[in-house]
Structures are given as C-alpha cells and as structure tokens.
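Dear H.,

Thanks for agreeing to be a second pair of eyes. The structure we're designing against is below in token form, covering all 289 positions.
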C-alpha cells in the first residue's frame, strides 16, 4: 500500500510537468523540452536559499519564482525570436532541449553538483497505512499537485488569460483578429508553466534528492505522461502522470530501479502503436499519411 501511495505522489509530480508540456503546446504549438529543468531549478534554488539563511517558506516561494524567471529567459532569449522568424518546429524543440541542458550545467557549476534535499514541510508528519506508516510529505505532494491542477482547470475556463490561452489553442489567426496577442499569451504560458514545474520541485525535493541531472529524468517522464494521456489535454496529463508514477514505483520495488525508464518507454511505444492519440484523445485527432 505504501508503494501505491508513493507511486501516486510521484505520478502527481509527473502530471505537473506533463501539464506544463500540454499548456505550452496548446497555446503555442511548441514542445518545450526544458520543462524538466524547471523542476530541478525549483528544488535547487530553494536549497540554495535555505543555505543562505532565508526562512523556509520564503525560500520555497523563491524557488518557484526563480523557476518562473528561467522560463521567462527561455521565452525572451530563444522561443520568441525563433517564433518571429517562423523557424521550423524542430529548431524550436532543439533550442528548448539545449537550453534545458545549459540550465542544468549552470546549476551544477554555480550552485552544487551534488544531490540535495530539503526539510519536510511538516517535521515528523507521518500517515499510518496498513500497519506501516508513510512520510506525510507524500500526502502534501498529492494535495499541492491536485489543488494546482484543479485551479488551472478552473482558470482556463473562467479567467481572461485562460480564455485567451484556449482561443490561441483553437486558432492563432482568429485569436489575433479578436485582439489577442499570441506572443504575450505564449510568454504568460511559458512563465506560468515554469513556475508550476518549480513548485513540483519544491514540494518533491524533501522526499527525493534533486541534482542537476534530475532535469533530464523529470523532462522525460513528464513528456511520456503527457503523451500517454493525450498530448495537450489537461486531464490526460493527470491520468498519464498517475499511471506512469504507479508503474515506475512498482517496477522499482519489485523488479529494479534500473528498469523504470525502460518500462516507461515500453509503455509509450505500445501506446503509440495501439492508441497514438493517447488514452483520452479522440481518434479523429490523429491524421494518417
């Protein structure tokens, strides 16, 4: 039972990363492979701030802000200029991938190359489960992620920026005619999803060591989760993240942690063959050559 709870908590983290992929893709048509780096930045920036004697709550907020700022840099320095030049999608994807690797190396050189952790949000908090107990931080991860995803869903439906994002996702040209600036919406989406991924890193680092190399893993698992559910779909990202989190945890517990990534890719390949539109996607959304 404890493995299942840990898998669900891990899955919610993957879901937050997957939601970032989906929102950016829906708004701009861009697949942002730097998404995993934002998770790592959130955790490592918080750790750095706590080491410099910032109060924990302020350091956690700072970690989210730093991650969002890095997302802003990515947009201003790379994505927006490439978008203005109508660069091929593959060029933009490669740019985000290189940027994520650059951020990871900057963190390794400028903050720490060693794995780091953070204090639990509530010291000593444990949840009894079936004669055992589980670290209460996992429950906090689930609660924070679930509230965040529900809030995002509500914002997309009810807020002006949410409506603008949905308009851009439906048709960029039409949204421009309606007075919506797609680049501003894209910038807002990039900064917001970077901060969301940073929040995932802040809440998850207390129960899992984070270092510069974790950026790649978070990026891969988030991308797989988004694809499993249905790329660009909010609830599909949640479903894909939960499935992936549970499966990888069961694999690590009963087979070997060395096979977690193998299993994740195996699930993705099987799904691409049998249901390429994702678990929640409609078949008509997938075109065939």
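And this is the sequence the design step returned. I haven't edited it by hand at all.
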């Amino acid at each position: 039972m404890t493995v299942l709870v840990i898998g669900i908590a891990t899955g919610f983290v993957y879901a937050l990363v997957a939601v970032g992929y989906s929102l950016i893709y829906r708004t701009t048509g861009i697949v942002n492979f730097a998404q995993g780096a934002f998770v790592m930045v959130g955790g490592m920036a918080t750790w750095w701030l706590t080491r410099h004697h910032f109060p924990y709550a302020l350091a956690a907020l700072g970690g989210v802000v730093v991650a969002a700022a890095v997302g802003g840099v990515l947009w201003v320095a790379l994505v927006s200029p490439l978008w203005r030049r109508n660069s091929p999608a593959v060029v933009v994807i490669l740019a985000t991938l290189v940027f994520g690797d650059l951020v990871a190396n900057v963190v390794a050189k400028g903050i720490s190359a060693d794995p780091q952790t953070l204090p639990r949000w509530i010291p000593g908090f444990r949840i009894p489960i079936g004669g055992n107990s589980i670290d209460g931080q996992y429950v906090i991860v689930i609660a924070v992620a679930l509230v965040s995803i529900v809030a995002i869903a509500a914002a997309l439906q009810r807020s002006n920026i949410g409506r603008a994002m949905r308009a851009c996702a439906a048709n960029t040209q039409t949204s421009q005619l309606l007075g919506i600036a797609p680049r501003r919406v894209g910038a807002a989406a990039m900064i917001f999803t970077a901060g969301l991924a940073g929040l995932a890193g802040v809440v998850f680092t207390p129960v899992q060591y984070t270092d510069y190399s974790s950026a790649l893993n978070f990026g891969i698992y988030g991308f797989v989760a988004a694809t499993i559910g249905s790329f660009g779909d909010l609830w599909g990202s949640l479903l894909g993240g939960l499935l992936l989190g549970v499966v990888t945890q069961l694999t690590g517990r009963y087979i070997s942690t060395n096979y977690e990534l193998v299993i994740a890719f195996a699930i993705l390949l099987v799904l691409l063959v049998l249901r390429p539109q994702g678990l929640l996607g409609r078949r008509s959304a997938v075109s065939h050559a």
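Two observations from my side: Residues 56-84 form the longest helix (29 residues). The beta strands are 126-129, 132-135.

Warmly,
E.
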